[in-house]
Each structure stands twice: as structure tokens, then as C-alpha cells.
Amino acid sequence: MAEKTSSAYDKGKFPDEEESETDSEGSDVNTSDEEDSSWISWFCTLKGNEFLCEVDEDYIQDDFNLSGLSSQVAYYEYALDLILDVESPNDEMMTEEQHEMVESSAEMLYGLIHSRYILTSRGMNAVLEKYKNVHYGRCPRAYCCGQPCLPVGTSDIPRTSTVKTYCPKCCDIYYTRNKYQGNIDGAYFGTTFPHLFLMTFSYLKPPKPTQVYTPRIFGFKIHNGSGGSSSSTAKQITQGESEQKRRQREGVQAEAQPADGAMGG
Predict the structure, then answer these.
(1) What is the full per-residue pLDDT of the chain (265 aa) written as tens digits?
(2) Cα separation of 202 and 24, whole Å?
(3) Taking the CA atoms of the chain, what radius of gyration do you get in angstroms?
(4) In Å, what is the CA distance from 36 to each residue of 39, 57, 111?
(5) CA 25/CA 32 separation, integer angstroms
(6) N or C: the chain end with fewer CB closer than 10 Å?
(7) In this structure, what are the phi and psi dihedrals at residue 221, rounded to the nearest 5 degrees?
(8) Rounded distance, CA 82 to CA 102, Å?
């Protein structure tokens, strides 16, 4: 508000009362919105965090749901206070470096809580809304015909691998198409989630794809043989070409023999 008034003075005029009241109301609304926005809402709307759901605060406040996490996360108490928007009396005493470490710990703690939350009924319903809106992308496999995917981790241990997308149709996993979303830790979703989700909402499980891609060379299927190695396939092609050339030579010779006999007679 002070900045707006100063700007008006610089222009050589006073703002009238109506403009002042409007500016004051707009400023109050903006301030109110910022105050109402929780850390969780802010964090989940950051670029790249669209895969994450907003975990209910009452779930986080239940110590039973956080069992074992204090030993995995540094600055656990500070990180938890940050997530729940609780002001700590020691915040002012912390250095900038310590604040950054607390913020990093809060991100990791929230991710680990998130991996547990999405296995609950409330968490699954939150993911269900995202799944219906195709927030997790579609399967890149052509024969899956744009099947919506689910997030999955290849490990339950943090900082081991990034999140992948799981296709319920071909049952394979893929890298995310968005590089920012691909930076999310896979442990924030875990290895169990998509499979338990599809067991819970079994009506969402699609049928297996009926089409399978068949490699061909000049229209003929490639038979890999028992070994299935590329060298054996190349050998078969070479042998086939040699056999074809041999037959062509035999055909030319057979046509030439009657002509030679007629000339001798």
C-alpha cells in the first residue's frame, strides 16, 4: 500500500478516496490469499510437482502415520513444523544455510509422507481425480492407444531413482515426458502404489493389448531362431541371399544348354 501511495505522489497528484479504498481492498485480498495458502498447497503447485497430491494435515498430525520417518530425515522437527506452517521460536536463530537444509528436509519428509498417504482410501481418491484428468500422461506405446498412466517408483529408498509412469495396459514403465516431473524422487510414490490402486479400482484396469508389433524385412517376418541373437539373424539373411543367387545361376545355365546343342547340330 505504501508503494502505491508513493507512486501517486511522484506523479504529482493525490489518489482520490475511491481509488485508495479499492487499492486497500485489493491489497487485503492478496494478503489474505497468501496467508490462506498453506505450505502444502504452495509446494504441490510448484513446477514439476504436479504429480503430488495434497496430503491432509490431520493425516500428518497423527504420529502413527509418521512412524520411523524421524530417523530418515535430518532436521525432522523443523521440517515437520514447516510443512504444517508452525512457527518455530528458533527460526530467527538459524543461519541461511540451515534454513535451506530445513527446506530440503521438508521436501523429502513430505514426499515420504505422500508415499504412505496415497495408499490410504483418501489418498487413492485424490490420485483417482488426477488419473481421470490424465495428469500423469499417456502410454507412449502405439498399440496402447493413449492409455492413461499412473506414477510409480522403482525403489522405496529415497534418492535411488526418479519417478516413472506405469501403463496398466501393457504393464510396462516409461520415463515421464516432462523433464521437471521426471526429477521427482520415485520413493515419493513407491513400488506398491499403482498395483494396489488398480486392485482397489478394478473397473479401471484395461484389457491387455491385442496387437503386437512384428519386425519385418521386405515384408517377411524375422525368425530369430532358438538363440534369438542378431548375428544369427544376419547369418540367415546372408544364407538366403546366397541360395537365391545360386538358383539364379542354375537357371541361367539350364537355359544356355539347349542353345549350345542346336549350334553343334
Answers:
(1) 344 433 333 433 334 444 444 454 454 544 445 556 899 999 999 999 999 999 999 999 999 999 999 999 999 999 999 999 998 777 777 888 988 999 999 999 999 999 999 999 999 999 999 999 999 999 999 999 999 999 999 999 999 999 999 999 999 999 999 888 889 999 999 999 999 999 999 999 999 999 999 999 998 988 776 444 556 556 655 665 666 667 777 765 666 555 454 444 4
(2) 53
(3) 33
(4) 10, 14, 22
(5) 10
(6) C
(7) -65, 145
(8) 8
Joined grid coordinates for residue 109: 519428509
Place of cell 541361367: 252
